[in-house]
Amino acid sequence: MSNKREREKRREERLQQESSVDTKDRRKRLLQLGSAAVFIAIAAVVVLIVVTGTGDDDGGDVNLEEVSAANQLLDGIPQEDLVLGDPKAKVTLIEFGDLQCPVCAQYADEVLPPVIEDAVKSGEAKIDFRNFTIIGPQSATAAAAAIAAGEQGRGWYFLEIFYHNQGAENAGYADDAFLEAVAKAAGVEDLAKWNKDRKSKTAQKQVQKGFNEAQKFGFEGTPSFAIEGPNAEGGIELLGTTTDLQESIEEAG
Prior knowledge:
The chain is of the alpha+beta class. The protein has 9 helices and 8 strands.
């Protein structure tokens, strides 16, 4: 069976699984980048989540959950910095996210795992996470901690475990104790180096770089996505399902 037929078969299977999802409100607008690289930018702020919290400054719970789930999802997949997947993959799915964002956490839990299991594990695509810190001061602190974990090859473990243990926005939970607990659970071996790296000017510059890139694309919310690949077409689209992301990956490749 040809690659095209295989993709079409996977597409039909996903469409059947997600037939209950209403996609009639999807909207598109052109995006001009003025360079040889062409991106599909997906503004994926399509789900409303009501978050309740105390709003106090208590630290987060260091008794973390879903660590084994993160390991099961990510084990065996190459990682470099905050890029997950084969470095030679033709397609790159770029996610702009804020670790304090509840919608990002829902995407990490529900939407992205099938993409990772399929397109990423097969080598068809890789996912490049970039920090778009828009919620509060601890967003930048958490972003730098993820970048530092990525320097030891544990960045995506850090992201997944953080999201699974996320507190209420700006509740003060992402303190040093919580971040260190996430780093330990993520398998960061040299915690002294991680602590130094996350407070470095280099990490701060990387956080700012991600923010600047998101603004360049015109993104206003998280998570937002862009796709880069040999057959990508320019445009911004409001998309919200695994099928949408998978189809964009297939079209871009």
